[in-house]
Each structure stands twice: as structure tokens, then as C-alpha cells.
Write a structure and sequence with these properties.
single chain, alpha+beta, Alpha-Beta Plaits, 7-stranded mixed sheet, 11 strands, globular
Length: 288
């Protein structure tokens, strides 16, 4: 097995509706999602089998077989891998609605498929299986930059991303558990009369009223605030980089934590690190 590297991008939900619930407890969703340049990084290396995680100290992540990235790798290999070390560098905040764990699972699944010689193009059946790891996993595994998702996340319909590709992310210090937000969801929260918005905003606000102030601050800075996923990240989009920078500066000026990034225009690709090293060596010899 050669060393492989792959970015695991974050995502934004442009809209999110909860349209039902299956007998097995899974919620039925209608959502539109886009990839961001903000990304975790995964390395699959030959060596002692196991998982290594590099993450900020405030992000408490499991480093055993319960980790979503490891579960994705096992699914990609079709079983427990032998002599394969998965290294995960976390840059996406956890429990922030940005899909970091699901993206890690999908990226590890792709790495496992490549290492085992299987196709990285997920079939509808494989997307349905991956949805049981998390509703966002099929989107990340589908190899698209923007898509409409239905069912429990397993039906992925590619779409064109919006032209406004500069994203202002407000990242509160607190986090929101997806399970807690769905547990707080009420029938009155469901937006049956509109096609856009986020049905999880109302329950998130009940759990964390501070989100309301962040929404107001983003609007006061000139952005059109929305919440991604189950929160806690608030975001705004613009097609003007100067406007994005100005909104970010205004928010930082009042003490709001902000990250500026952009929407991805191409999916992340697996990098064969051995091939890259060989190419670099050949280039160096040519220059000599």
C-alpha cells in the first residue's frame, strides 16, 4: 500500500427541512449542501494498524474504533484493515454543523476503496449504507461540490453551487449536539409553508439563545445570516471578497469569532504521496 492523502472538506446547508420520520427513527430530510475550502486532512499510511488524531484540545474526539473516520475506513476496506494507519488532522470544529465527522468518514471510505483497489464511485446502494454512519456522509462520498439531498441523506442529486462563493463563518465557542437539537425539534418548527430556511434553527435557539444575538450581529454587519446544519455555526455568503472582508472585520471588532473561506469548485482528489515524491525527485534531477 502506498501512502495516500485526502482533504475532507466542511459543508454548509443552504437550506434544511425535516419532512418526516421513518419507523426506525431516522428523520427524512430535504437539504441543499455545498462544500467549503475549509477542510480536515487525512493520511493513510502503511504500518501499525490504528488511528492517530491531531486536534485542538477543546475538541474531545474518540481515538478508537468508534471514531467516524475509522468506521468509514473499515467500510471502504470491507473489513478491518491490516497494517494501515489512518492519521487525521482536524481543522473543522466539532459539533458546529459543518459536517466534519461525516466528511472524515467519507474521505476515509474513499481512501480505503483506493487502497483496496475498489472503485471510488459510490453506487446508490453504497450511499444508502453510508447514510447509516451519518446523514451527511453520502454527500461527501458522492464526489460533487453541491447537491440536493433527500431521504435520510442517501439520495444525492448534483446541482450548481451558488455564484456567491465567499463565506463568512461565525464559530461560537459553544457547540451543539445534533442529537440534542433533533431531540428538541417540535412539529411547530417545521417550515411546511416555505422552501428555504432551516427547520433546526428554532430548536437550536431554544437550546442556545445566544445564537439569536449572533444572527443579529451578522445582519448588522451587512450579511444575510443563516445557520448550517444543527448549528452552532452561523454563516453568510457574498460574491464580493471585499464585502466578505468588511463583514468579517466588523464582526471581529465586536468580539465575534470569524473564519473566512470559500465554496469549493472542484471535489477533493486523493494524492498518491509516493508518486508525488518520485515526480519531485525526477524534477530535481532534471534541474541538476
Amino acid at each position: 500500500m502506498t501512502p495516500l492523502s485526502l482533504e475532507a472538506p466542511a459543508k454548509l446547508n443552504l437550506s434544511l427541512r425535516v419532512v418526516g420520520r421513518r419507523p426506525d427513527g431516522f428523520h427524512l430530510l430535504e437539504t441543499e449542501m455545498v462544500l467549503l475550502e475549509l477542510a480536515d486532512r487525512l493520511l493513510l499510511l502503511p504500518g501499525a494498524t490504528g488511528l492517530r488524531v491531531e486536534a485542538p484540545p477543546e475538541d474531545e474526539l474518540p481515538v478508537d474504533q468508534s471514531n467516524l473516520a475509522w468506521r468509514g475506513l473499515v467500510a471502504g476496506f470491507g473489513g478491518q484493515p491490516e497494517l494501515a494507519c489512518l492519521a487525521l488532522e482536524k481543522r473543522i470544529p466539532v459539533e458546529a454543523g459543518l459536517g466534519g465527522g461525516s466528511s472524515d468518514a467519507a474521505a476515509a471510505w474513499r481512501l480505503g476503496r483506493r487502497a483496496s483497489g475498489a472503485s471510488e464511485a459510490a453506487t446508490p446502494e453504497e450511499l444508502a449504507s453510508l447514510a447509516r454512519l451519518g446523514a451527511d456522509v453520502p454527500f461527501f462520498a458522492a464526489g460533487v461540490v453541491a447537491a440536493a439531498m433527500t431521504g435520510i441523506g442517501e439520495v444525492v442529486t448534483p446541482m450548481e453551487p451558488p455564484s456567491a462563493d465567499h463565506a463568512i463563518l461565525v464559530l461560537p465557542a459553544f457547540r451543539l449536539s445534533t442529537a440534542a437539537v433533533f431531540g428538541e425539534l417540535r412539529d411547530s418548527d417545521l417550515a411546511t409553508d416555505r422552501a428555504a430556511g432551516n427547520d433546526l434553527l428554532a430548536p437550536a435557539l431554544r437550546l442556545r439563545p445566544e445564537l439569536g444575538e449572533l444572527l443579529r450581529q451578522v445582519a448588522a454587519a451587512g450579511g444575510e445570516p443563516r445557520m448550517t446544519g444543527s448549528g452552532s455555526t452561523i454563516f453568510a455568503l457574498t460574491d464580493d471578497p471585499d464585502r466578505a472582508a468588511a463583514i468579517g472585520a466588523m464582526l471581529r471588532g465586536v468580539g465575534v469569532p470569524v473564519t473566512l473561506t470559500r465554496l469549493r469548485r472542484t471535489p477533493a482528489e486523493i494524492v498518491d504521496l509516493e508518486a508525488v515524491a518520485l515526480d519531485a525527485g525526477a524534477s530535481a534531477q532534471g534541474m541538476g
